[in-house]
Specification:
Layout: H1 3-15, H2 19-54, H3 65-93, H4 101-118, H5 126-146, H6 149-155, H7 161-164
Helix pairs in contact: 2-3, 3-4, 4-5
Length: 168
């Protein structure tokens, strides 16, 4: 769809919503716009970090793991922001404004993965690593338990195609 068609569709759908649904939709759009600003600034910061690392005397020295941690941490920050933005936009475009738990869990797992990447094992204690590992295992277990929720709801006729498109 082109932008004009999407705007017309948005306005048409917006007019048939009740006041609270309109409020929710506007909040989601504002939050989505703020996330765009954050992602763009994170991307700019990432590009600057790449330039700084690339202009060092020891360009990507394998012995300096801190450069890799810095860059991959910044990359994951951008990815997390994009995934959060995508899930908000899918909720705003659909008829439902409730986020699926599975997407929230996946974003949380990405955040924990980012934390593991930037973690300085020499400074951080074992208790913090254990806690992060427990959180990752717990989120993974919850994800495993709810992974098929959409297919079960769809087969029961409780899920429409708009909500199903969010899982792709």
């Amino acid at each position: 769809m082109n932008l004009r068609t999407e705007v017309r569709s948005f306005i048409r759908d917006f007019k048939i919503m009740n006041l609270y649904q309109q409020f929710e939709r506007m909040v989601l759009l504002i939050v989505s716009g703020l996330i765009v600003v954050i992602v763009v600034s994170a991307l700019w910061s990432l590009m600057l970090q790449v330039v700084v690392v690339a202009t060092k005397d020891n360009f990507f020295d394998p012995q300096l793991h801190t450069d890799f941690q810095l860059l991959f941490g910044a990359i994951f920050t951008v990815i997390i922001g994009l995934e959060l933005k995508r899930s908000i936009m899918v909720a705003a475009q659909g008829h439902e404004t409730v986020f699926q738990v599975r997407i929230v869990i996946l974003v949380a797992l990405l955040a924990i993965l980012r934390k593991f990447i930037i973690l300085d094992i020499e400074v951080v204690g074992a208790l913090k690593v254990f806690a992060l590992s427990g959180a990752a295992v717990g989120l993974g277990a919850v994800y495993w338990l709810i992974r098929d929720q959409d297919s079960k709801l769809k087969s029961a006729g409780l899920l429409d195609s708009a909500a199903d498109s969010q899982t792709r």
